[in-house]
Amino acid sequence: MEDDVAPLCEAAELRKAEQLRDSLKVLMGIRKGEVALIVYDDYAAPVSAVTRRALELEGVAVRLYHLAEKGRPCLAIPSDLGDLIESLRPDLFFNQLKGYAAETPFRIALHCEESKHGARVGHSPDIDPGMIAHAMTADFKAMRQTAARLKKRFRAVRTVRLAAPGGTDVAFSVSGRAFVDDLSIRPGHMGNLPAGEIWCAPVERSMSGTIVCDGSVGDLGLVREPLFLSVEAGRVVRVRSNDDAMVREVETLLAEDADASLAGEFGIGLNPKARVTGLMIEDEKACGTAHIAFGQNTDMPGGCNNSVTHRDFLIRRPSIVDQDTGEYVMRDGKFV
Q: Which burial class, exposed, middle or buried, applies to 267 when counting CB atoms under 10 A from its CB (0-12, 13-18, 19+)?
């Protein structure tokens, strides 16, 4: 019986790599003869091993860079990694790392450096094997069609009202701010893996109301008690919750610099295979959720928030309304 275990495990691992390869062909257009660099750490080593095999199945040449735990959190791109990026200039990058909150500026700098020469970047802070087994097995071709329909619908929307059973009730302008998605990672661009959302940079100082985060907070995990954010003229002016420790952590993160508390993103999850587990890289893709982020958005169309940080707050069962017409885009977490 024991002799059968190894072949069964090997077959399962091969199927996992083949599924990931097929998803990467849709999302990133990987092809034979390209060169990829995987930047990984100890936390993400199992995911990086599957990614390497998936790429090599397609004939992609793979180089690895191991980010050592010594010296973490990183405040800047290590010089040897910067040199490798500049000398190799691969077609594809995969950043598979533990998502330390203090490393947000480093991660932003890293994917900006990687994409500047035209590479396609799959960016995955906090990715784990469960995401490969679940969120990355979705039908991304069908999801791309859903994203296209939603982006077309939002072209006529000027002001969004976002509400939810948890108490969220916030409005903001999206006039002149195009929605984008992560379902086609093009040359010179970054997209999250796992994929499955559309988002935009709302007009930063137009946002006012109350956001009740009842899902998770980027880099901090699932909320134990609802987190209330009062927003005026685009800025978080008050944070409250029965979880005092979470309040202190969020207040610290929103004070990282002058614009860390300024509106940065409005996103909608599209991925039916994504779960809400406390890891935002997957949580924000889950169907039936929306998220508002504060901080950096200059990589989004029209975005002008140049903060060094970016913090997402997940909202369950949102209703999204075109405030000018009263028409629903989403009601209670389901698309209309």
A: buried
How would you label 36-65 residue by residue, b for 16+ Cβ within 10 Å and e otherwise? Answer: bbbbbbebbeebbbbbbbbbebbebebeeb
Tell me: the pLDDT tens digits for 247-279?
A: 999 999 999 999 999 999 999 999 999 999 999
Average pLDDT, the chain: 95
CB distance 314 to 193 below 8 Å: no
Rg (CA), the chain: 20
| Helix (H) / strand (E) containing 135 | none
Classify residue 72 by its DSSP letter: P
Which sign, positive or negative, has the C-alpha torsion 237, 76, 65, 87? Answer: positive
DSSP string, 196-259: -EEEE---GGG-EEEEEE-SEETTTEE-SS-EEEEEETTEEEEEE-S-HHHHHHHHHHHTSSTT
Q: pLDDT digits over 293-333, tens only?
A: 999 999 899 999 999 899 999 999 999 999 999 999 999 99
Query: What does the alpha-carbon distance between residue 304 and residue 203 come to, in Å, rounded to a whole number?
Result: 9
Domains of the chain: 2-125 (3.40.50.2300), 138-335 (no CATH)
Q: What is the mean predicted confidence (pLDDT) over 200-211?
A: 98
Q: Give the residue from 255, 261, 290, 288 showing the smallest Cα distance to 272.
A: 288
Enclosing H/E stretch for 113:
helix 104-115
User: What confidence category does residue 6 fall into, taking pLDDT thresholds of 50, 70 and 90?
Assistant: low
Specify the pLDDT at position 39. 98
